[in-house]
Design a protein that fits this description.
The chain has 27 helices and 23 strands. By secondary structure, the chain is α/β, with parallel strands linked by helices. Helix 26 links the parallel strand 22 and strand 23. Helix 26 crosses helix 27. The radius of gyration is 26 Å and the shape is globular. The N and C termini lie far apart (77 Å). The model has no long low-confidence stretch (mean pLDDT 93).
Length: 769
């Protein structure tokens, strides 16, 4: 008897972001479609070779994507919104759905479960139909190009539909609105319809001789009622009907299964995948309910979400526990969550990162080696590698920082001033009209900006030359904002690469990779910082640039900071201390910065928290604890400011409706929030909840290159007016403008300012407190 191994979700971007470069070159017209596809294929071949070298028993295929794996399913089953049907070329239509066109708004984009990956939300209209069998194409490609048998991997039908939205007629109206498919009466019939398409796909795979398929079903770890579980099992009966020659695995991850016994016993599949890394709940379930003898267990025993090296002794002990309930010949060792949450390789970090820190790290390629080593230890008696991981962790402790956060949970943290009174004073001091306009923070990071930053890093220009260049960019941005007649300005963030990286580089306790890129969405990649030690701020981080920008204008310029919860959630954080303690450490460091900005005369300070919702635990029973400390961490950054200092925050691309009362509890004076891609859906939350703080509902989508017309933005703004006090409404884009070009940014902002002017003309420019 011997255990088998597999992995899934290996990064798609290439070791040096080759995927990004090829696709963006195609979008710019620099290379042809054929050239782009050739370069993309080279990326896929390289990643497949790396995976094959891990000596896996089940080699994955169909886990590569040009943009998004959920969008891949939509185009496979013909879920193409009507507004894109007129685009004949399949590839152009695919990219249009993700990015929008001049005439069509892009599909909504939101966070994938509790991660920083964004997927394209399926819009369900019309019938499901198999128009492109992607798993079959990928299987045949791998066999032809690399001569290997593979296990195609695909998002499962249940998860796909749980992440979708459907059109439903509004009560008492002829208008249609989009609602979550899981909340619709159509859910069950749609699921069974989609199941039939998946069955057709499997029949074609079976005819080709495919031996195994993996359906990723992370939605099974959500809080599901019995009706949903019964629908799931019935759907899989449809999916697996007539499939006798394929092993079908359903893999779950990011959390434990609540309906463990029913799912593992009744789901008509060959194997179930469980996450044993996230917590010990699946192991406890295994002990309590056992595991069916007719199924294999795909045991997720190494992490796909964090970069900390696998502790072999710890994992081998876990596997021994699992073997008490599942025979060794039915165990398939795997990563717990997809590896695309990790950078590709540690290779380029050698000589760059601290050697002690390197001893603690493992990226995607190293995970392949770890799964290979585990297999050799168990099956061939290979000696367990010697590890002293805790000794290395202990080197990075700062007792003074740890002491500073010891008693925070025992104190109420909040601003002492009543919101209504302080907001009136702020508006009067700032001299703002009703419906004030602003942007979220960043302005276009042009090729010139990126080139100068690269030159500075390489030492080709001096610090003084670089600083003067940044000043020129700030001056230009202030002049453009003056011309646009915006009301509250930003300095443009030209000195910043990434909103988390920038602050991490200026705080102790953070490390930064040279090439540790991770896909955030499409071709957008980020380099998550690694929080390896206790966090503190040795000196001011933003004062110089913000104060310079403020010196150029009479209009208020916002101080721009990234909030503690976002810095935490968008970093690879330590696992040896509570997550909330790290948030508090970051918050105290940011509070020092806020007070320095205030002393320097900055009257508006924005503390962005786009990842606030993202960190919400998937299980409802665990959410209150997280929300309590997340709100406290945000408040900790600004609870000591003066009454007249206006605090903003920003959130984007998440389902906020269910936590609106916690967002309110953050007590920011103004929150800016995404509303464009979701067609203003967030506004429904304010129809049910009396939100009486300042709010800027994002009136246009900055992730698309299109310039939306005034009428389109005005529709969202007018809807906001119906549910929010006119004295509290701000007008802004839905996110920062870093990824856009000036050629589209300026006309879009002109239209946005025009929306504010129309509203002032209609409802009055002066506040009527």
């Amino acid at each position: 008897m011997a255990v088998k191994t597999t992995i899934f979700g290996y990064p798609k971007i290439g070791p040096n972001r080759e995927l990004k470069k090829a696709i963006e070159s195609y979008w710019k017209g620099e290379i042809s479609k054929e050239e782009m596809l050739k370069k993309v294929e080279e990326v896929d071949i390289d990643r497949m070779k790396r995976v094959i070298n891990a000596d896996l028993d089940y080699i994955p295929s169909n886990d590569f994507s040009l943009y998004d794996f959920v969008l891949d399913v939509s185009t496979m089953v013909d879920m193409i919104p009507k507004r894109f049907r007129n685009i004949e070329d399949g590839l152009d239509r695919y990219f249009a759905m993700a990015r929008g066109t001049k005439d069509a708004i892009a599909c909504e984009m939101t966070k994938w479960f509790d991660t920083n990956y964004h997927y394209i939300v399926p819009e369900i209209e019309g019938a499901f139909k198999l128009v492109k069998n992607r798993p079959l194409d990928s299987y045949k490609w791998a066999k032809e190009k690399l001569g290997v048998e593979t296990k195609p991997v695909l998002v499962g039908a249940f998860t796909y539909l749980m992440l979708s939205k459907v059109y439903e007629r509004q009560e008492g109206s002829l208008l249609m609105k989009m609602v979550k498919a899981e909340e619709s009466e159509k859910f069950k019939p749609l699921l069974f319809e989609l199941a039939s398409v998946y069955n057709q796909m499997l029949r074609e795979l079976q005819e080709e001789g495919v031996k195994a398929v993996q359906f990723d079903e992370p939605a099974l770890v959500l809080d599901l009622d019995e009706d949903k579980i019964n629908a799931l099992i019935d759907a899989y009966r449809i999916i697996t009907e007539g499939i006798t020659d394929i092993e079908i695995f359903v893999h779950t991850y990011y959390e434990s299964l609540d309906h463990f016994e029913k799912i593992t016993k009744e789901l008509p599949v060959s194997g179930i995948g469980l996450d044993f890394v996230v917590n010990n709940e699946n192991l406890e379930n295994l002990k309590k309910y056992g595991f069916p003898e007719d199924k294999k267990l795909q045991a997720g025993v190494i992490s796909g979400r964090d970069p900390w090296k696998t502790d072999y002794k710890q994992v081998l002990n876990l596997i021994e526990e699992i073997k008490k309930y599942v025979s060794e010949d039915r165990i398939i060792l795997s990563n717990a969550a997809p590896l695309f949450h990790l950078p590709v390789s540690l290779e380029s970090e050698k000589g760059h990162l601290n050697e002690d820190l390197l001893e603690l790290l493992s990226f995607a390629d190293e995970r392949l080696e770890e799964i290979k080593t585990l297999k050799q230890i168990i099956n061939k008696g290979k000696e367990i590698p010697s590890q002293t991981l805790q000794e290395f962790r202990d080197k990075f402790k700062n007792e003074e920082v740890q002491k500073a956060i010891e008693d925070i949970d025992n104190h109420e943290i909040k601003r002492p001033h009543d919101f209504k009174e302080r907001y009136k004073k702020q508006i009067e001091l700032l001299g703002l009209p009703r419906f004030p306009t602003t942007t979220i923070g960043s302005f276009p990071q042009t090729k010139e900006v990126r080139q100068m930053r690269a030159k500075f890093r390489k030492g080709e220009i001096s610090a003084e030359e670089y600083e003067n260049f940044i000043k020129e960019q700030i001056k230009k941005a202030i002049e453009i904002q003056e011309e646009l007649e915006l009301d509250v300005f930003v300095h443009g963030e030209f000195e910043r690469t990434d909103m988390v990286e920038f602050f991490g580089q200026k705080m102790d306790g953070f490390a930064f990779t040279k090439n540790g890129w991770v896909q955030s969405y499409g071709t957008r990649c980020v380099r998550p910082p690694i929080i390896y030690g206790d966090v503190s701020r040795p000196e001011p981080m933003t004062i110089k640039e913000i104060v310079y920008a403020q010196s150029l204008t009479e209009k208020p310029v916002k101080g721009m900071l990234t909030g503690p919860v976002t810095i935490l959630n968008w970093s690879f954080y330590r696992k040896d201390i509570p997550k909330k303690d790290i948030a508090y450490q970051i918050a105290i460091a940011l509070r020092d910065e806020v007070l320095d900005l205030e002393k320097a005369g900055i009257k508006v300070i924005q503390i962005d928290e786009p990842a606030f919702r993202e960190g919400l635990p998937l299980k409802k029973r665990k959410q209150e604890e997280y929300l309590n400390w997340a709100v406290k961490a945000f408040r900790l950054t600004n609870n000591t400011v003066a009454e007249t200092t206006q605090i903003h925050t920003h959130m984007c691309y998440s389902e906020f409706n269910e936590i609106i009362e916690w967002i309110y509890a953050m007590d920011s004076d103004v929150i800016s929030i995404e509303a464009s891609r979701s067609k203003g859906e967030i506004i429904e939350a304010f129809e049910k909840f009396n939100y009486d703080h300042g709010i800027g509902v994002g009136v246009y989508d900055i992730h698309s290159p299109r310039v939306p017309p005034v009428e389109e933005m005005l529709e969202i703004a007018e809807r906001t007016v119906q549910v929010i006090d006119k004295n509290l409404i701000w007008i802004n884009p839905d996110c920062g403008l870093k990824t856009r070009g000036w050629e589209e940014t300026i006309p879009a902002l002109k239209n946005m300012v025009q929306v504010a002017k129309i509203l002032r003309e209609k409802y009055g420019e002066k506040y009527d407190w």
